[in-house]
Amino acid sequence: MTLQDWLSSGWLKQHASSRKEIADLLTKVDRDITEASKEEITLDWRLAIAYNACLGCATIALRAAGYRIPGGAGQHYRTIQSLRFTIKPQSDIIASLEAISRKRAIVSYDAAGTITESEVAEAMSLAEELRERLLAWLREEHPELMQE
Fold first, then answer.
1. pLDDT of 101-139, one tens digit each?
2. Which domain holds residue 102?
3. Looking at the domain assignment, is residue 134 inside a domain?
4. Residue 49 and residue 55: Cα distance in Å, rounded?
């Protein structure tokens, strides 16, 4: 499968990104990484915020590649899976993101106080790693979308 296959299946829409959009989305990722590190916030929310930073990185890569996920069911899942076609991280990174997504769903919808410090640390580390990989990928593949 490719992103073009996803487009043909209706899982994506074409999207023309801009430097401003990428910069604005990167600002959100940076904000989320900063907020997730604040110890006065509960572990549950810190994990959710770190997950949002990861999701933001995947969104930026997809937008830079010329696509966006239409709203609706499966939006987060497809955004994460799209990393396979954009920045192409190792498969364990996507598996880790899927695990964090499941934990985020639990604390968002089912139970409070279930997240540990080590889970937050893992989510934070993943967010920071994805951000660095994203920036390297943007410089290599889409320098026209980077701020000077």
1. 888 988 888 888 889 999 999 999 999 999 999 999 999
2. 17-145
3. yes
4. 10
